[in-house]
Structures are given as C-alpha cells and as structure tokens.
Amino acid sequence: MKIETLVTRLLFAGLALSLVFIYFSQERLFSFMTKGDNALGFERYFRIASTILVIAAAFITLFFVKKKYAFSIYFAYGILLVYLILNFLISGGDILNPTDIMNTKGFGVWLCFGLIFVSYDEYRYTLFKRFLFMAIIVIALLSCYNFFEFGAGLYRGQALSKYRVYAVNYVWVAPYVFLILKGNKKLAWLRIFALFMGLILALITQTRSFILIYFMVLIFDYFHTKKKTPYLVAFSVFMVLAVYFITNMDIISRSLDLLINRGVNDTRTGQLSLFFNQLNIIEIIPGKGFFASYKFGNTELYFLDNQWLYLLWWGGLIPVTAYFYLTAIIPFKMFITSNISYETRVECFIMLLWVLGLAGLAIYTTMNFDFFFLVISIIQGRVLYKYSLLKND
C-alpha cells in the first residue's frame, strides 16, 4: 500500500469516528447538566481510536513526505510541540496518564495539530471537502432530532445541554461549506441549508458570537459576489423567511427573547479582570505549566475564554508565538495577496475567523480533540501548503 493511500484511509477513519463522537459528547453534556454524571462509557473508544488514527496520519505524513512545506512551517511546528512536551513534563504532568496527555494543557492536542501536514494532496483534500458536506448533514439531522424530541428549552442552560456541542462544531464547518460551494448550482441547496441551520442553532443556544460569525460570513460572501442586486434580493427573501420562523414558532421566538436579554450582559470582563489581577508577567514567559490556575473567590479556575491568553499563560511565549505565526500571520499574508484563487481566499478567511474565535469571539472554541479542531487544522494545512508553493516560486 502506498503511503498516500495509507494516510488518506487513516485520516478519514479518524475523522469519521470523531464525527460520530459528536453525538456521544452532546449526550454526555446533557447527562452532566441534568444529572451531574460526566463519566465516559464505551464511547471513549471512539475518541481514543479517532485520536490514534489522526495522529498516525499526521506523523506518517510528517516523516515520510518531505519538502512539501516551507522550512519555517516545519520549524514553527517542531518548536511548538517540543516546548509543550517539555513544559508538560517539567510542570508535573504524568506522561503515563492518558487523561493528562489529552488535557487541554497536555501535548496530545498538538500531536493532532500535525494534521496541517496532510493537506497538500489534491485528491485527499477534495475528499475532505466532500466529507464536510456529509458532516453538515449529519450534525443537522442530529440537531433536528433533538429539536423535535426536546424543543429549545425554557432557558439557556437547557438549550445548551442539548445543542451546544452541535452548535460549536457546526459554526466551524458551515461557513466553509457555505463559501466553498459558491457557484456550485447542483449543491446550492446545501449551501443555503448550511447557513440557515447554523443560524437556527446559534439562535436556539442564544450564542451572540456565533450569530456574529455568520454575519461576517455573509459580508465576505457579498463582497465576493459580482451581481449584488440579485444577492440583496435573495438575502431579503431569506430574512423574511427567518422572521416568519422566528415569529411563528414559539420555541424559536423564546430563544430570540433570551438572546436579546443576554446581549446587554457582559460575561467576559469580570473573568479577564480577575485573571490579569493575578497574572505574573515573569511566569508567563516560560509558561505556568500543567497545573496553572487562578482564583475566582474561593474557587480555583483552570481555564480562560481567550485561548491566546490561555496558551500564553500555561504554555509560554514560545508556543503562542509559533502557533500565532502558523495560524494568524501566514493566513493574513495570504489573504492580502492579490493573485490568489477564491478557494484560497475562503480558506484564509476561515483561519482569520478562527483567530478571532480563539481571542474570545466564539465561545466554547478551544484547541482540543474535537471534530471542529481537526477540521480547522486541515484547512489551515491547506493554507500553509499554498503559502509554501508561493514561497518556492
């Protein structure tokens, strides 16, 4: 079997298992929020198998397929991974404990990030796009099942318990599908469906940041549309239908009311204020390590909404700089390049949204083992590969 074929099979087997795990992850969240039960059952094997498969695909590619990417990309990834492994070991993480390794402060996530190196193959990336078209439908069907069985909930906590995992994964897949299908007449229905379902999930979960992301996607799409008058007409029809659904379906109307009430509440400033008051600038240069925490009253907090600050806080200056170079600097340089294709511009735009999402724009967005992070890493790898091609020309 050729290396390319092996990598492709490992990759899509891992992605498929990760997609399946979305259902179990959502049900686990529901169990935790209603019963306090957060235990993993047999579904843990889906997560373990998925992780092993995608890491294998990433590192087979990394070691056996050389010179596809610019040296700066290999160097940035290498120093990021090595530094975080050392940070993990020095700060007391247990190398024999899979739970520690797979923690958001472990280095397992960054092994999965090696998926940036699988995106150079044209055939594999075409399959990946088709896989995302299927993933959109699968997540939508799971959401619709909950919608008819459970409704939207009487308050936000109930909505999140049944839709949060679906909404978070959807918001990082739907924009790409919506934009990349532009001009595809056969799949125009899927393009509209992806955006519509994303907005419904954002509304049900009363998530302001997700609605803002979809709005930014529409702005991008508008400016990349030649005939703007038909676009405005189509958008107006879409809005009329959206208003109809909102005003005529009680559960969606209730979600909108709760979302408006949330819109005037600042939920981030207090956390950041407490964090900065306890921040030691000297300590974050090397990173505080695996057991980094700060106090919220009498409670020890180990997380932070802003993922750039979070990585800087526990990981240190070197990893956050390397990741920022790969995730923000290169995609931005590509985005402002005049002679790139529409597809490349879409991929760069998705990465810029991801940068903003990690900065706190998109709640529940983290670097982890979830399906959406694997998807973003592959899209990012495509941008890095095209950057390498431009640099070599």
From TrEMBL:
Top-rank taxon: Bacteria
Transmembrane segments: 7-25, 45-64, 71-90, 102-119, 131-148, 163-181, 193-219, 231-251, 272-291, 311-336, 348-365
Alphabetic keyword roster: Membrane, Transmembrane, Transmembrane helix
Protein name from the UniProt record: O-antigen ligase family protein
Species of the source: Maribacter chungangensis
